[in-house]
Write a structure and sequence with these properties.
Bound molecules: beta-L-fucopyranose
Distance between the termini: 17 Å
Shape: globular
Number of strands: 21
Largest sheet: 8 strands, antiparallel
Strand content: 25-35%
């Protein structure tokens, strides 16, 4: 890293270390009826994540494993009538799964303990429709334990996917009975395996007009989690992590972690969403127009789930359709680079192994990330101000406060640099605030815009045409309150 050539100057409007006292609202804020919009917006800027949500956001890359009876029947949604005798992986090796995912840069693994077909990957006492009735290890296996142990030994976090929709359970549709059954399953999973970091409640339910109508008792499920795994984050039909609304790997260019969209499955929150006409898939979940109408806001950050293959489960016919490296890197920019966490699904095959093609692709993906983000060019040289480097660095707890807008931050290099990735981070421990920014480079003596965006949040990446310049400036055009910028990076992609 060159340390001698560049200078770093802050131009224009005041950028000072924050020292005012403020009122932060952890996870949610409610408005009084007559709260004016400007006050609401200021309060929105001070909704902050819980420590668990913050830790989760920092993971950036997480993995999904869809594995179960569908793996053996070539289906995506089993109907619950499949015989457990079909489940018979011959070379199952959970260490190979977790090591492969780790080699792909993943920091957590979420396993489908039970998908919609109701087949349980652990020896549950709640039903005989489980691996205990399968030929795998003569019915003595416990796949949840194997994956958890592999995660522990390789240092990855561990999560559980548990489908509320269950097409095998006899009691499904008899609401109190099934709720009790589901609570028992949840209790087993949250007590038998040590620490669980994420619980993923799928929102899908394919019951048609003549199907069984099951009312899920979300509050009682959450109470169990609160009691047994208070540090876990709960996703999708949970109140900590939001489904981004697509399964394509692409988030929103404007992605607010503070949403008017209310989290989870509680009835009172569903009503809020009905009133505001919002679903996870709505284009806008957090604009000022929406804040104006809202009575409450939530820290409810986005998770982007997508499969490395066309389906969620392994199908041999898809071996030639594993996503390419450019597809994965594009997904990276559109998920991690858009203020979300990527949840990449990698389904093991019938042998019980992650297929060689997928494993290779994951390695390539990690190698590309490592090579592309190896050197933060913005760090070249010393900043004039003692704090400048820390701001660019983003690893410290320091940040800059830009208090009026537009506010500019200029980086001057004494020799030409080349980059095509721009990274900007907000200090989200104090909220998400920036609404618009631009990035310019001085090219042939004039400032030219090379990138722009709306929200930043935890991390915003822009993948742009390569730029050669000696000067870069970032302008925060609009922010809901003081903009707290905790990191700036310029990189050349591999
Ligand atoms: C959806 C399910 O229906 C899919 O099978 C898959 O599990 C995906 C992650 O969530 O809702």
């Amino acid at each position: 890293m060159r340390k001698t050539f560049s200078t770093f100057t802050i131009i224009g409007v005041i950028i000072i270390l924050s020292c005012t006292t403020q009122t932060y609202h952890e996870k949610m804020v409610e408005f009084k009826l007559d709260t004016p919009l400007n006050k609401k917006v200021m309060m929105a800027a001070q909704v902050v994540p819980t420590s668990q949500q913050l830790e989760w956001q920092k993971l950036e890359l997480t993995a999904f494993i869809h594995f179960g009876i569908n793996t053996f029947t070539e289906q995506e949604w089993g109907d619950g009538t499949e015989s457990p005798s079909l489940f018979n992986p011959t070379q199952l090796n959970a260490i190979q799964w977790v090591q492969t995912l780790k080699d792909g840069g993943m920091r957590m693994v979420i396993l489908t303990a039970k998908h919609h077909d109701g087949f349980c990957l652990w020896p549950t006492k709640t039903t005989s429709h489980s691996i205990a009735a399968s030929p795998w290890l003569n019915g003595a296996g416990d796949l949840v334990r194997e994956v958890k142990n592999a995660c522990d030994s390789l240092g990855l976090k561990f999560g559980i996917y548990l489908s509320p929709w269950d097409r095998n359970a006899q009691s499904y549709g008899d609401s109190p009975k099934y709720n009790e059954f589901f609570r028992q399953q949840l209790t087993e999973l949250l007590t038998w395996y040590g620490k669980v970091d994420e619980i993923w409640f799928d929102g899908a339910c394919g019951e048609g007009p003549n199907g069984k109508k099951q009312e899920y008792d979300w509050e009682s499920y959450y109470a169990i989690i609160e009691k047994l795994q208070p540090n876990a984050v709960v996703a999708i039909k949970g109140e900590d992590i939001r489904w981004v609304g697509t399964e394509t790997g692409y988030g929103r260019p404007t992605e607010w972690s503070v949403t008017a969209f209310a989290p989870g499955g509680k009835l009172k929150y569903q009503k809020i969403n009905e009133q505001l006409g919002l679903t996870e898939m709505s284009a806008d979940l957090g604009s000022q127009q929406l804040i104006e109408k809202a009575n409450a806001l939530f820290w409810y950050p986005a998770e982007v789930d997508v499969s490395i293959r066309p389906g969620w489960f392994y199908h041999q016919k898809d071996d030639n359709q594993v996503k390419s490296l450019p597809e994965l890197t594009d997904i990276y920019f559109n998920s991690v680079g858009m203020n979300a966490v990527l949840l990449l699904n990698v389904p093991p095959d019938k042998r019980g192994l992650i297929h060689e093609i997928d494993a290779l692709r994951l390695k390539e993906f990690k190698a590309w990330i490592d090579a592309s983000f190896k050197e933060n060019i913005a760090l070249c040289g010393r900043s004039k101000e003692s704090y400048g480097q820390k701001t660019i660095d983003g690893n410290s707890e320091n940040y800059w406060t830009a208090s009026s807008f537009p506010s500019q931050l200029e980086i001057t290099f004494n020799e030409e640099v080349l980059f095509d990735i721009i990274e900007i981070k907000e200090f989200i421990q104090k909220g998400q605030r920036v609404e618009a920014f631009t990035v310019e480079a001085e090219i042939d003596g004039t400032w030219q815009e090379v990138g722009s965006g709306t929200t930043i949040g935890y991390k915003r990446l822009l993948y742009i045409k390569p730029v050669r310049t000696e000067k870069v400036r970032i302008t925060i055009l609009k922010s809901r309150y003081d903009a707290l910028i905790s990191g700036i990076g310029l990189y050349k992609s591999a």
